[in-house]
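Appendix B, example 12.
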Amino acid sequence: MKRTLAIVLCLLLCLALLAGCGKKEAGTGLKTLESGKLIMATNAQFPPYEMVADGEGFNGTGFEGIDVEIASAVADKLGLELVVDDMDFDAALVAVQNGKCDVVFAGLSYSAERDKIMDFSVSYADGYQVIITREGSDITSADDLANAGLIGTQRGTTGYIYCCDDYGDDHVAAYDNGAQAVQALLNGQIDCVVIDLQPAQAYVEANEGLVILDSAYVVEEYCAAVAEGNEQLQQAIDNALTQMVVDGTVADIVAKYINAD
């Protein structure tokens, strides 16, 4: 009986160890803000990258969009559950720096300035900063921005940073989100809006009398970002994103929301 009991206990111990190894391989050994979860900060007013859903959203997150689906696929690869925390764009950048979230997926463009305060993942998509104007505007190209009275941007974005650097803070009006900037343009309070291409297309489609200029103002790379020095999570996200780019997962997700034609 003692021998039988010892064998049983030994088998149970081996099974427990194997189960523990399986969990670690699934990603639960990765340190995140909340055990078993990947908390993503975003600004869900940036279609088609992140939007508030009408219902449960993608995988029950309450949100949908390119970044939401990519982040959800990353979380799956890391053995984690995605949790989406919606806030102002600049608040999302602060949240990841202060350890209030694990990662930012928010149509976030790489910049050397941001790289000083957070760590970026590999790029997973290209971004284009474009210019929205009213039909018949004197602003017909990026060169005309120098003569604009006020350029509207979303606060904290690279569009805001570039416009301030190029034309000075006095010529740039910052808004909490792109919709507010577009409304100010419609009201005649500003002369144009600099914003990413995909949301620009959505705003122009929804508001008669607005146009997007043909040439891009800036071409960028979209990345995720984690707190500076969080190499373990950065490497894990990099590995997942790289696999998803190579196997076509990212391209498939982007194609769901953006018509290449």
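The first strand starts at residue 37 and ends at 42. The CA atoms of residues 119 and 231 lie 8 Å apart.
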